[in-house]
Write a structure and sequence with these properties.
single chain; alpha+beta; Phosphorylase Kinase, domain 1; Transferase(Phosphotransferase), domain 1; 5-stranded antiparallel β-sheet; 3-stranded antiparallel β-sheet; globular; protein serine/threonine kinase activity
Length: 426
């Protein structure tokens, strides 16, 4: 059973040398433990919370320290930049009776990737057949964003794309649950203070990675924020996201896009405000952190037009409940400045929240900087065919080099926890 899972990792998800010995997945945040083996941070942290011995060879560990492994991180980014993304139609089965989420732009179904006897459960996003021109444009737009952030921590991971009949599909990792699910399950709708801060920091790490890649998210909200089986955060649903061309910092969308409760003033009125930019996402991030920490959804119960009048005409931000500490209220207040140029960058906001966390009881003593994204290879989105490629690096891209492969004992690791269903709002 373990051998079969390892084979799935090697052929359907990532090279064996870049897969975590514990969770059998691509190491988006690789760290080296005191046994000399490289693991994904989330997997080894969970292991070390209950075990004092190596998961690879069973020997006692000298200590519980872990350290970032930049060589493996670089190899992961290079693999994602050069990999082939086409998934053959015969490799994918979609369960049409199990919908994980749906919206105006398509539907997400549970699926299964297979290669011989190998199996991997996945989420499959499918575009409507009615408007093929629009479907093609939306498909290509989201595919470009997902490929650009492939291998980046805290961003939903693309496995590939395919054509099922006449419907274009993106195949993605299946995550466990959403932040919205977690908030609904909590009394008062808010996370515990330390947990809320940790989740908020990971959200901002993912957002910073998107902005480093010149991507404007446009739809940051709890239902688009996913948890994996280790409780780590991943941003998802880039259907209306936009990649900014070099030299361009703002753009005016053809329509008003986003979710009103989390939209900035310039998203409501892009032409009058000079356009949408990465600063628009910072407003949305403030709204999300506000809900995570207080349980209050911004502008709850208000209609689209009422919210627009509040943030655009009255120049008001979301109400910040008085029970939040002054330090946190002050940080959130900077996100809701009407002038986008006066809002902090995602990285600056993260550092401010990190400084606030350090002052809390039992705060972590150390915290590493978020992963940054390497300059992407030129991307070509090619016409679809039954046999042709999905997305490929440009012809002048250099071939992939072998990354630093950490030494691994021969003893197989224990199987990872089972995957569970997830609802994705699209």
């Amino acid at each position: 059973k373990i051998v079969a899972r390892k084979a799935v990792v090697d052929s359907l998800w990532c090279p064996k040398r870049l897969g975590c010995p514990l969770c059998q997945e691509l190491m988006l945040d690789p760290v080296q433990a005191s046994d000399g083996v490289v693991y994904d941070r989330r997997a080894i942290q969970k292991w070390l919370s209950t075990n004092m011995w190596s998961p690879s060879d069973g020997r006692p560990l000298e200590n519980l320290r872990i350290a970032s492994h930049p060589e493996t991180a670089s190899a992961v980014r290079e693999f994602c930049a050069q990999r082939e993304w086409d998934i053959g139609e015969s490799m994918l089965t979609v369960n049409q009776n199990e919908t994980l989420g749906k919206g105006a732009w398509g539907v997400v179904k549970r699926g299964e990737l297979r290669n011989g006897s190998q199996r991997l459960r996945v989420a499959v996003k499918m575009w409507p057949e009615a408007d093929r021109g629009l479907a093609q444009r939306l498909f290509e737009q989201e595919a470009r964003v997902l490929q650009r952030v492939a291998g980046v921590n805290h961003c939903c991971q693309l496995l590939g794309g395919c054509l099922l009949g006449d419907r274009k599909c993106l195949v993605m990792k299946l995550y466990k649950s959403t932040l919205q699910d977690a908030l609904l399950a909590r009394p008062g709708g808010a996370l515990e203070l330390q947990s809320g801060i940790r989740s908020s920091l990971e959200i901002l790490s993912g957002l910073q990675a998107l902005h480093d890649a010149r991507i404007v998210y446009m739809d940051l909200k709890p239902s688009n924020i996913l948890f994996d089986e280790y409780g780590a955060i991943f941003l998802a649903d880039f259907g209306i996201s936009r990649i900014l061309p070099p030299g361009q910092e703002r753009f005016a969308p053809e329509s008003v896009d986003g979710t009103p409760n989390f939209m900035s003033p310039e998203q409501f009125r892009p032409v009058q405000s000079g356009g949408v930019s990465i600063a628009s996402d910072v407003w949305s991030a403030g709204c999300v952190v506000l809900e995570v920490m207080s349980g209050h959804t911004p502008f709850r119960g208000m209609q689209h037009g009422d919210i627009e009048a509040e943030v655009c005409d009255r120049r008001s931000g979301p109400h910040i409940p008085p029970h939040l500490t002054h330090g946190l209220s002050d940080i959130l207040g900077t996100c809701f400045r009407h002038d986008p140029s006066q809002r902090p960058a995602a990285g600056s906001l993260r550092r401010a929240l990190q400084a606030f966390q350090v002052k809390l009881p039992s705060a972590p003593t150390t915290m590493e900087a978020p992963q940054t994204i390497a300059p992407p290879s030129p991307i070509s989105v090619l016409p679809f065919s039954k046999t042709g490629p999905f997305i490929t690096a440009s012809a002048d891209s250099s071939p992939s080099r072998e990354g630093a492969a950490p030494s691994r004992p021969n003893k197989p690791p224990p199987p990872p926890p089972p995957q569970e269903a997830i609802l994705i709002d699209i």
